[in-house]
Design goal:
Helix 3 (47-69) crosses helix 4 and helix 7 (115-140) runs parallel beside helix 10 (201-222). The longest helix has 38 residues, at 228-265. The protein starts with 19 loop residues before the first helix and ends in an 11-residue tail after the last helix. It has helices at residues 20-24, 28-41, 47-69, 75-84, 89-102, 108-113, 115-140, 155-161, 173-196, 201-222, 228-265. The protein is elongated, with a radius of gyration of 28 Å. The protein is mostly helical. It has 11 helices and no strands. The model is unreliable at 1-17 and 270-276 (pLDDT under 50).
Length: 276
């Protein structure tokens, strides 16, 4: 179908103002689309930014409606086609939240690597350095052998449960710390990262863990024949990385729901778009 010529202007329902109100009032589906995005953004970005983002989306949708209307069709058909080619409201909101978070700090370092990546890298990098220091203390300054720290079993019996290359269990704070730290640290650090990074925390942790794991494998190779360092690196690859990503996603999701719940309890409900 050929576009309409100047002798056949676009329908009167095509608006010109680049703002949300006239666009949302065209059709209930458009109003619902904007309302869904507004509810996702409410409490996540300042009100001024929320209004700006919604107007930008309305401006883009308005031009899509204008372009499609030149080929004919009813308002229902055009709106249905525009919305079917648009991203889902939750996806749009998540992208805007992430962009807003990254743009809050004007720093060459943030601009190069990303604010979320640097936060995740700092958290897991510091956590990795602390454990590697602990490993070196255990390797180079082992506790003096005492009767109290020897398990009440023969070494052969113990090794049936903890085979090589697992470290030999002992009643020492060093051994307990070396076992507990790799388990607790990813959970705690992932939770903190999810609270500090409102959107994209999983991707940021995944990116930050590559240099962290690389340094862990490198130091583990240096400490051979002691296998504690390599065991830590393997454990972080199989457990620390997925657990850190999972707890970050859980923490970020719960934080968003909590903020939205607080906003609604305070009486600041999302504004309703006008429907025709």
């Amino acid at each position: 179908m050929n576009p309409r010529s100047d002798d056949h202007p676009a329908p009167l329902w095509v608006v010109e103002a680049p703002s949300i109100e006239p666009v949302a009032s065209l059709h209930p589906d458009l109003a619902g689309y904007f309302q869904a995005i507004r509810e996702e953004l409410w409490g996540q970005v300042p009100e001024e930014a929320l209004t700006f983002y919604l107007n930008e989306i309305a401006f883009w949708i308005e031009h899509k409606i204008q372009d499609l209307s030149r080929y004919g069709g009813t308002l229902d058909q055009v709106v249905r086609q525009v919305l079917s080619s648009s991203s889902m409201p939750r996806g749009v909101a998540e992208k805007l939240i992430e962009e807003h978070f990254e743009d809050q700090v004007d720093s060459p370092l943030y601009n190069r690597f990303g604010r979320a990546n640097l936060i995740a890298g700092a958290l897991f990098g510091i956590g990795n350095v602390l454990y590697l220091i602990l490993v070196q203390v255990i390797v180079y300054f082992p506790p003096a052998p005492t009767v109290e720290r020897i398990l009440p079993f023969s070494p052969a019996t113990v090794r049936t449960v903890f085979p090589e290359p697992l470290p030999y269990p002992e009643y020492t704070w060093q051994f307990l710390a070396s076992v507990a730290y790799p388990i607790v640290a990813p959970i705690l650090l992932g939770w903190i990262a999810g609270r500090l990074i409102p959107q994209g925390s999983v991707r940021a942790i995944y990116s930050a863990m590559f240099p962290v794991l690389l340094s862990a494998y490198l130091l583990g190779a240096i400490l051979l024949p002691n296998t504690l360092g390599l065991l830590y690196a393997v454990f972080q690859t199989l457990f620390g990385l997925p657990m850190g990503c999972f707890t970050a996603h859980l923490s970020s999701s719960l934080a968003r729901r909590s903020r939205l719940r607080q906003v609604r309890k305070s009486g600041m409900q999302p504004l309703s778009s006008t429907k025709s």
